[in-house]
Amino acid sequence: MHKKPIIIGVAGGSGSGKTTVAKEVYRQFPEQSILMIEQDAYYKDQAHLPMEERLKTNYDHPLAFDNDLLIRHLQKLSEGKSVEKPVYDYPNHTRAEEVIPVEPRDVIILEGIMILEDDRLRDMMDIKLFVDTDSDMRIIRRLLRDINERGRTIDSVIDQYTSVVRPMHLQFIEPTKRYADIIVPEGGHNHVAIDLMVTKIKTILESKAML
Ligand SMILES: Nc1ncnc2c1ncn2[C@@H]1O[C@H](COP(=O)(O)OP(=O)(O)O)[C@@H](O)[C@H]1O
Ligand SMILES: Nc1ccn([C@@H]2O[C@H](COP(=O)(O)O)[C@@H](O)[C@H]2O)c(=O)n1
């Protein structure tokens, strides 16, 4: 009989180490039992907009995400059905043409800046984490990552951070910390927190197997 998956939410500011934490947890399970979904993959499609319009979008506002599609996909996976996960193209600020076929799994890790902001998503999660990293560390990490991996310049990262990312973080992300079951300081290399998470997920999986 099909069992509903365990959904683990990993939230936190940009550059906090969410992806690193999520990947560390992911690595502790056999590939056929776990999958990762990034909320970034569900940024709204902007293929119909010219580049100059895409550059004006506020990517740190809840309305930038297609949470309806994300929720539909999580529901389908919970029903044991597969989905086609979108792929996000950061340099072009829109969805890529390809999609990734995703099969249902026992554990789903949902990672993203705004996943605790939407109560419909919160209600679907079994465990909620907030990765809490000081803003100076987050901007340094983001600078390096966005230049090396997302096709950005130093000036564009600094300008976006001061005008949009920082104020939106204070308005929409930081307040969602209150919904977390666990707050993980510093993120990716916090092995104690990661081991605790892995143990907890295994305990839930074992108790589900007994039902
Ligand atoms: N604890 C850490 N110490 C140093 N660098 C880290 C740590 N956690 C993550 N990083 C690095 O910081 C960058 C951003 O981390 P990432 O996990 O992608 O953050 P997020 O998903 O929250 O934006 C990556 O290059 C990652 O390797
Ligand atoms: N076209 C885009 C889309 C998103 N961003 C930024 O990504 C950040 C979220 O991703 P993390 O991996 O850092 O959590 C978010 O703060 C957006 O500003 C972008 O720059 N361009």
Automatic annotation (TrEMBL):
It comes from the Bacteria. It is found in: Cytoplasm. It catalyses: uridine + ATP = UMP + ADP + H(+); cytidine + ATP = CMP + ADP + H(+). Its EC number is 2.7.1.48. Gene3D superfamilies: P-loop containing nucleotide triphosphate hydrolases. GO terms for cellular component: cytoplasm. Pathway: Pyrimidine metabolism; CTP biosynthesis via salvage pathway; CTP from cytidine: step 1/3; Pyrimidine metabolism; UMP biosynthesis via salvage pathway; UMP from uridine: step 1/1. Keywords: ATP-binding, Cytoplasm, Kinase, Nucleotide-binding, Transferase. One of its GO terms (molecular function) is ATP binding. One of its GO terms (biological process) is UMP salvage. Residues 7-192 form the Phosphoribulokinase/uridine kinase domain. ATP binds at residues 12-19. Belongs to the uridine kinase family. PANTHER family: URIDINE KINASE. NCBIfam families: PRK05480.1, udk. This is Uridine kinase. It comes from Alkalicoccus saliphilus.
